[in-house]
Every structure is written in structure tokens, then in C-alpha cells.
User: Which sequence fits this backbone?
């Protein structure tokens, strides 16, 4: 009897467990089915049919409301210790009558970000004679990228061209229209247009169509500048006829879409935008390209020293490519657009911003330390970079002073030539770190090397002024040495510099202010 009772109890327990398991299984099946249905609904229950002609992100947002809502948050201004941005009132001195160049338009911005040249006057002196010495503000989010370029006072002092808009506007449709379906031909025509004529052909800052194929949402490259630049880079590595849209991996594309804009570039004699990657991605490689007889490029002649100079432009991709994250296969989007889960769907966060403002998703998926610890590590790298940057900047200011004095005391033209070339090299290496937006974090060791090289070049320039027998130069890796053996290259002589990037030679610039002291760490 007891045995029967025991069996009945066991049967009851088994039945209850089985019922619970069955119920749980049914719940899981229903839950998974619901999430799958939600996921499918995103791709199959589309509100609008997207085409290669639709550039308005609000229309794309009807199909992808979560991504669009995040994209619109790029209008939020948030500072970090060395970057991000915060809002200030637009100073009256920086408001100009844009209607003189773009009839019928006014600058309605009430808030802008702070001025770098007001915060650190040494930048104004470094760029003296170039439009950046007139107006250069901290970058804001993608929401502002077209307006901030359109209304900058740089437009007042220089007549720019459409090539300047490659990194600031959603230009895919304009390229295709101008080229009648040939995007490269349209790109070439757009580059040569006067700036405000080109401005009339675009309506938005960078949008969905610039990175995504509207048919399947796959990432794509829509900027011919990068298509050609990568082909040149791969050719230097022995790979012919590289086609980024056919040959890049999905992981590579998560960085390449950013490299359409976040790069160094220049404008050639035909006003075409060119990435100087023909010999590699390091500033040393770029200097070899700029100094080569077939290019001989300079942006402008410095208004005080008359040195033939180069202005580095936001080279985030190039510096990142030298760092540990690139070597580890971590893409730009992994940190600046990390994955997140919205309901049933995993999406990239389209609120593109500094990882320091999103540490949990951007960093802690790989680095299992507290947010406070991670932020502290980043800022320590940036503090050290900024301190070395100040030393390199002070050396550059002293070199400019030295050249100014040497022009008056009978120093030989050969000595001046050598000193000016060293200013050219020192300033480009320093500006490469200054213009890059991570304050060294994308590749700390490379940033340190560049600043140390800049300091050395500036000191060599001063030595050239003092000693007519001094033989300046710079060290380069010997071929086939795997970077372990170096040889000294002399200063290249007799470079005949070609016209610069939309910049007049401002020989009549006002007299310079006295060299400022290095800024303190913020």
C-alpha cells in the first residue's frame, strides 16, 4: 500500500514537472516566435520603398525609427575632457554676412562650440596666413557638420570649392546626378564647382544613404575619394585594382564607412580631393608623397616665415590604423556605434559620439573594469599626449621666431630653406596629432612618436639657422629591415611647390602676437 502511494506521488511530481516543462517550452517557443516576428517586421513590413534617390534621413527613419531616433541625438552637445563639445553663444565677431556669397541666406545659428584659436593662440600663429587662423572651432556632432562648415568665417576670407563638401554633406545623390549615373565623374564635376553653387545641390549632412545600400541595408562606400584612396594604398602593398565595395570584409566596412571622411586629404591641381595614401598611411609616407617631384604640394606659405606648409585634416582613420584596436580587429563602429539590443533586434547605436560618453557599451563589452577605471586610463593617455604636444608646440613657436630673426640678420638662403623645410615637417607631424580627434588615444605610441619627431624637426630647424655646416634630416626604415634598421635622409632640395588648397598666399597678414605660453591641461 505504501509502495503504491509512493508511486502515485512520484507520478504526480513527474506529471507536474512535465506540465511545467511543457508550459515553459511553449512560452519560450511563443516568445522566440514573437521576437522573430518583430525582427522580420523591420525588414519586410516597410512603410516606404527606399531608392538611391532618397537622401532625406526622415524618410529612411519611417522604416528604421530606432536608428533614426539615435541619429537625431547627434544634435546633443556633450563635452569630454579633451573633446566632445559644449554650447556657447555665437560671438558677434564671428558672425558675418553670408548673403554676400550665398544670396538670400543668413546664419541663424544661436549656439556654437568654443573656438580653438581663442583658447590657444599658438594655433592661430601656427596657421597664420591660412583660413584656419581666422576661425576654427571644436567639432560638433554629425547633425551640425554641414551648417558649421557653411557658416564658418573661413568662407568669408577664402573662395572655396565643392571639394570641401565631400566630408560635410550627403553628396551621393548630387554626385550621381552630375555624373548621370557615373559617381566618379559626378564627384569630379562636383569638386570643381564654386562652394555655394555646390551647396545649393545638397540639403543634409551625412545621412543613411552615404553608408547604406537602400535595397538591403548593407554597408557600402559612396565616396569616390575613399574608393580611389584605398585602391592607391592597396597598390602600394602589391594589390592591383582593389574594389572596396567588392573586396572589403564586413568588419573592414565598419571602419571604411567612417574613413570616407575622417582622413587626411588634399586637393590636386584639378581641384579633385585626393587621399595621400600612395606610399602608406603614416605621416612619413604622406610627406614623401607631398615632397615628390610629381606632387610638390603645399597648402600655403606661412605669413611670417614663408615656409611651404601643410594643414593636416582630421586623420582619425590613419592614426587608428597604427594602434592596438585596429591590430586587434576592433572597428570604428565597435566603439563609436556599439551594438545594443532594442526589443528583439540587435542594432548599432547611431548616436555617434565619444566612447567616453558610452563606456558601458563601447568599452565594457571587452574590458571588464569599472567605468571610472576605464575613463581614468583614457584620460591618463590623453594627459601625457597633451603635455608632449605643448612641448612640440613651444619648439615650433621658437623656430618661427628664429626664422623671422634670421630673415633680418643676413642668414644664408640655404639655411633659411633648410629651416623652413623643417618647419614644414615639424608642423605637419604636430598638426597630425592636433587635428586628430582622440588626443592620442587611437594610437598612443604612434602619437608620442609623431610629437617627438615634431620637436626634433623644430630643434633641427633652429640648428640649421645657427650653423651653416649643419646637415639636417630625418630617419627612415631601411627597405626589407622590418622597421628595425634606419638610415638618415637629407632635407630634399629644390622642391618647386604647386598651388595650395583653396588658399591665397597671405603675405600681407597682420603682425603676429607674441608667442603665447603653452595652455594648461583642461
Assistant:
Amino acid at each position: 500500500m505504501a509502495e503504491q502511494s509512493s508511486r502515485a506521488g512520484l507520478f504526480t511530481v513527474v506529471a507536474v514537472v512535465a506540465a511545467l516543462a511543457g508550459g515553459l517550452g511553449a512560452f519560450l517557443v511563443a516568445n522566440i516566435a514573437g521576437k522573430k516576428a518583430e525582427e522580420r517586421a523591420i525588414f519586410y513590413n516597410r512603410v516606404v520603398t527606399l531608392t538611391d534617390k532618397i537622401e532625406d534621413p526622415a524618410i529612411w527613419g519611417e522604416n528604421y525609427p530606432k536608428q533614426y531616433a539615435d541619429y537625431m541625438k547627434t544634435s546633443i552637445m556633450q563635452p569630454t575632457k579633451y573633446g566632445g563639445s559644449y554650447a556657447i553663444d555665437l560671438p558677434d565677431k564671428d558672425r558675418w554676412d553670408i548673403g554676400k556669397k550665398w544670396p538670400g541666406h543668413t546664419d541663424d545659428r544661436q549656439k556654437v562650440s568654443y573656438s580653438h584659436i581663442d583658447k590657444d593662440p599658438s594655433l592661430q600663429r601656427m596657421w597664420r596666413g591660412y583660413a584656419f587662423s581666422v576661425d576654427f572651432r571644436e567639432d560638433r556632432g554629425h547633425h551640425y557638420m554641414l551648417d558649421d562648415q557653411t557658416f564658418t568665417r573661413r568662407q568669408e576670407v577664402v573662395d572655396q570649392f565643392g571639394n570641401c563638401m565631400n566630408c560635410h554633406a550627403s553628396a551621393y545623390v548630387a554626385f550621381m546626378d552630375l555624373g548621370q549615373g557615373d559617381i566618379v565623374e559626378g564627384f569630379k564635376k562636383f569638386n570643381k564647382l564654386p562652394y555655394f553653387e555646390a551647396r545649393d545641390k545638397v540639403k543634409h549632412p551625412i545621412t543613411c544613404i552615404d553608408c547604406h545600400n537602400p535595397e538591403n541595408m548593407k554597408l557600402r562606400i559612396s565616396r569616390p575619394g575613399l574608393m580611389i584612396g584605398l585602391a592607391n594604398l592597396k597598390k602600394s602593398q602589391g594589390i592591383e585594382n582593389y574594389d572596396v565595395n567588392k573586396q572589403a570584409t564586413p568588419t573592414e566596412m565598419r571602419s571604411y564607412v567612417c574613413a570616407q571622411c575622417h582622413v587626411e586629404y588634399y586637393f590636386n591641381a584639378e581641384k579633385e580631393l585626393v587621399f595621400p595614401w600612395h606610399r602608406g598611411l603614416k605621416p612619413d609616407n604622406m610627406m614623401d608623397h607631398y615632397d615628390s617631384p610629381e606632387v610638390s604640394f603645399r597648402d600655403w606659405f606661412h605669413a611670417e616665415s614663408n615656409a611651404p606648409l601643410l594643414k593636416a585634416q582630421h586623420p582619425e582613420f590613419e592614426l587608428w590604423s597604427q594602434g592596438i584596436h585596429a591590430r586587434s580587429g576592433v572597428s570604428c563602429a565597435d566603439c563609436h556605434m556599439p551594438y545594443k539590443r532594442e526589443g528583439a533586434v540587435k542594432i548599432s547605436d547611431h548616436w555617434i559620439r565619444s566612447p567616453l560618453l558610452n563606456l558601458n557599451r563601447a568599452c565594457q563589452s571587452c574590458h571588464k573594469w569599472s567605468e571610472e577605471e576605464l575613463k581614468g586610463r583614457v584620460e591618463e593617455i590623453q594627459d601625457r599626449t597633451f603635455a608632449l604636444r605643448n612641448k612640440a608646440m613651444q619648439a615650433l613657436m621658437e623656430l618661427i621666431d628664429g626664422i623671422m630673426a634670421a630673415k633680418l640678420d643676413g642668414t644664408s638662403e640655404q639655411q633659411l630653406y633648410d629651416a623652413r623645410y623643417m618647419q614644414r615637417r615639424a608642423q605637419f607631424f604636430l598638426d597630425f596629432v592636433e587635428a586628430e580627434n582622440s588626443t592620442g588615444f587611437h594610437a598612443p605610441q604612434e602619437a608620442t612618436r609623431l610629437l617627438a619627431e615634431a620637436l626634433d624637426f623644430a630643434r633641427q630647424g633652429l640648428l640649421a639657422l645657427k650653423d651653416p655646416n649643419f646637415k639636417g634630416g630625418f630617419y627612415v626604415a631601411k627597405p626589407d629591415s622590418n622597421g628595425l634598421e634606419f638610415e638618415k635622409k637629407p632635407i630634399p632640395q629644390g622642391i618647386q611647390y604647386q598651388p595650395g588648397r583653396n588658399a591665397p598666399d597671405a603675405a600681407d597678414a597682420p603682425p603676429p602676437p607674441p608667442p603665447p605660453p603653452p595652455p594648461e591641461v583642461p
